[in-house]
Amino acid sequence: MVVFSGDMDKLFAAFTIATGAAASNMDVTMFFTFWGLRALKKKKRTGKSFLGRLLGLFYGGDINRAGPSKMNFGGIGRWMFKKMMKAKNVPTLSELRQAAIDLGVRMIGCQMSMAVMEIPRDTIIDEVGQCVGVASFIEQAQQADVTLFI
User: Domains of the chain: which residue ranges?
Assistant: First the structure.
């Protein structure tokens, strides 16, 4: 599965599909690239250059800062959806990510995206086994029965 988006709703879909597949005894690999890297970030500032620090400031934050792709309203949408999900006993993104980890879902960071966005390896959660280039991911994807892009 390629996870390109860092939007709350799309990350929910990605982790829900991944945990469902893993719970069904499927091998699951998630390749996080560009905005999707938010799902793997620790709550640390990133960026060394001026533009990198600016990107880290404006887009910064970890999985808990993900907002919905529609109706975000400057963060109010994120608050509203979290409240609604809690009322319905829906797990948080952090809990879904942990469930994926516990079920053995393999999470990989995109090395090129990390370099461009100035996200150092030490700002990525420890459970991420490796950060690789797209060629390594494609090699694995060729063996897959199902490939998804979210």
Answer: 2-141
The answer to whether residues 63 and 93 touch, using CB atoms and an 8 Å cutoff, is: yes
Query: Tokens 């995206």 sit at which residue?
Result: 113
Taking a C-beta distance cutoff of 8 angstroms, is the pair 64, 94 a contact? yes
Write the DSSP symbol of residue 110: E
Tens of pLDDT, residue by residue over 64-109, are 888 888 887 877 888 898 899 999 999 999 999 999 999 999 999 9
CATH placement of domain 2-141: 3.40.1260.10
Report the alpha-carbon distance of residue 131 to residue 107 in Å, rounded: 9
Contacts of residue 62, defined as CB under 8 A and 6 or more positions apart, other chains included, come to 38, 41, 42, 43
Residue 29 DSSP symbol: E
Whether 60 shows a pLDDT value over 80: the answer reads no
Sign of the alpha-carbon torsion through 55, 14, 43, 133: negative
